[in-house]
Amino acid sequence: MGVSVARIRVLVVDDHRIFAESLAAALAAEPDVDVSAAGSGPAALRCLERAAADGRRYDVMLVDADLGVLAQGATRTVPAPRGAPEGPPASGAAAGPVDGISLVAGMRSGQPHIRTVVLAERDDPRRAAAALQAGASGWVAKDCSLQRLLTVIRGVLRDETHLPAALLTGVLRELTAARKHRTESEQLVESLTPREREVLRCMVAGLGRKAVAERLFLSPHTVRTHMQNVLGKLGVHSTLAAVALARRAGVGPASLTGDVVERGGQLA
Question: Three-state SS across 103-124?
Fold first, then answer.
C-alpha cells in the first residue's frame, strides 16, 4: 500500500487568465498540491463558499496584488451576498472596491484559517507592509521560480512570514511609521472626554450634526460645540480628517441600531 500524502489545497486568484491558468497547472504537477483558479474577487468567493460547503476548505490563497484594478485606475466591486449581515460575510468578502490586499483583509475576518500570499509584479514596500497589516503571510514576485513559490506556500502553513530580502528594510520602516502614527493618534483620542469620544464615533459612522443631536439627546448647538472641541483636540480642521485619525487609532463607528440611554449625564 502507498503512503497517503497530506495534500495542500491552493486557490490562485488573478484576473490575468493566462497567468492564473499557467500557475495553477504548474502547481497541480506537485504530488501534494490540489489547486483551483479564480479570475476575480466574486469568482474566488464562490470557490471559497463551495469548498466550505463541501468540507474541503482551501489552505492557501495566492492573490494578485492588482486584482480588479482596471487600466484607468478604477476598481471592480464585489456586491455583498443578499441577506448578508453588516460587516464582512462568512466567505471573507469586503463591501466596496476590492483589490488583492482588500481581499486579504476580508479573509482575515471571514476565514482566518486560510493563509494568504500576495503575488506582485513589482516590489513596493508600502503595499507589502499594507498586505502584512491586512493579514497576508507573504509577498512574492510573480516572476519568482516555482520552487520559491512552493517554499513560501509550505512555509506559511508553518506560520512563517515570507518577504523578499530586498523589501525587508523598507517594509520594517513602513510598519514602524504606521505604528508611530497609530500611537500618536491613540494619544490624541485619549485626550477627549467620554462625551467627545461618543461624538467622534458618531462622526466615524457618518452622522451629521442633526443626527448626532437626535441620537445623543443633545441640542444641535451643543453637538456643534462638541465637534469643534473634537477637531481642536485632535489638531485637525475637518470632519474627514478627524475620521481618518480616529480610524488610525482604532476607533470604530457608533452602532446605528438599538437605543441610547443616558444615566447621570453619561452614556449607558
Answer: HHHHHHHHCCCCEEEEEECCCC
